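For reproducibility, we list the full input for the flavin-adenine dinucleotide complex.
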Amino acid sequence: MSIRVIEEKCSGCKLCVRACPFGAITVTKKSAHIDITKCSFCGACVEACKKFNAIELIREDAAGFVEVDKSKYKGVWVFAEQKCGRIVNVTFELLGKARQLADKLAEPVCAILPGNKAGGLARELICSGADKVYLAESSRLGAFIEDTFTEVVTGLIQEHKPNIVLFGATAVGRSLAPRVASRLETGLTADCTGLEIDPKTGDLLQTRPAFGGNLMATIICPNRRPQIASVRPKVFKDVHRNDLRTGKIIRYDYKNHTLTQKAQLLAVVKDSAKSAGIEDARIIVAGGLGLGSAGNFKLIEKLAQVMGAEVAASRRAVEAGWFCQTHQIGQTGKTVRPKLYIACGISGAIQHLVGMQSSEIIAAVNKDAKAPIFNVADFGIVGDVLEVVPALTREVEKMRTAGQAEPVTTDIESEQQLALSN
Ligand SMILES: Cc1cc2nc3c(=O)[nH]c(=O)nc-3n(C[C@H](O)[C@H](O)[C@H](O)COP(=O)(O)OP(=O)(O)OC[C@H]3O[C@@H](n4cnc5c(N)ncnc54)[C@H](O)[C@@H]3O)c2cc1C
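The corresponding predicted structure, in tokenized form, follows.
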């Protein structure tokens, strides 16, 4: 425990001197001085000084951490990530969740947007649920640099004291969130799959897989603020955009600030991969160890092709060398939320399920009727993948020839329809 006088606020009124039962306070030169050897940290002077708020009692727990006054922390913040002049989609997903959490707490939703000439993007955040946007602008904030962004984000959090801060668990969020949490000496729960408010305490309940995914742990941060969590893309639903929403954009100009910048961005190289990426795919056909061999993966590639789908794999299939790691679904792979997920020869281990169970429709093919994948599947076929998958492919091809189904593109901007309608 410690106590201090905030000199700028002290008027030298001596109210604290009269309130102190231990004679520990004297006033000289219009400022109070506390004799720590006499002070019992009873807080009587803090109470007496309520009008000026010039005395602060700082509590520490057994580990030496300073206990914060939680009532001073308000608002649910979302770190707005942008790439190549566009807001990254996970930001909108987080804004949707932030809105739900903030409504339960009766607190505002704010977004923090570091960028260069990013005013237009700030407006998008308001349309997607933010009440306020803290827009930190500088030519040095156009692209992500760890130390610069950490300084700006930490500074704004220290100034405005949000209750909760959410980051996307992207490459940028994974790099930034721990740095910010460490500077603020608060907790961070990474890769959350669920966020709720405890109705009794108002604390954030942060759920994520633990112990190798064998159980789901709910983590709280009861003594420190803000509560910081990161969430992977596609875990939460996209927010409904309302172009008529109004909000406040608070602009911070960092042009003349000396910002730390140990790293230098030399070039931005565009990924030349043709695929839109499984995170944005509307249909995914995924293969597991049940396919039996790398050669049999061709069967699901063919099914994916006729459906205009992306191919993905379980970790066991990836470890067997049958498909690339970048397309692994699950706890140590990608999280996806397609319209349709077809699991072929995948058992449905919890580590796989956490990456795909939010898909709109799940279909599974497995020869074992008791396979756990059937617990999350909307449609199940008990049978041999080597027979069922080619049969499905033939059926879809027939439907396409008959004009009943169109292949879909995985381009997220496309408005084309699903290959399989009902
Ligand atoms: C820390 C940790 C992280 C992990 N992360 C991930 C992750 O990110 N993603 C992931 O997927 N896993 C992950 N795992 C591994 C996970 O626990 C499972 O081992 C894995 O998902 C199993 O893959 P699978 O379903 O392809 O294989 P199996 O569990 O071996 O299942 C094969 C299935 O195929 C069925 N089958 C067999 N032959 C046929 C046939 N001819 N026709 C139809 N069905 C057939 C079987 O009945 C069985 O259900 C992780 C594990 C740990 C410990």
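The chain has a mean pLDDT of 90. The first strand starts at residue 2 and ends at 5. Both points were considered when choosing residues for closer inspection.
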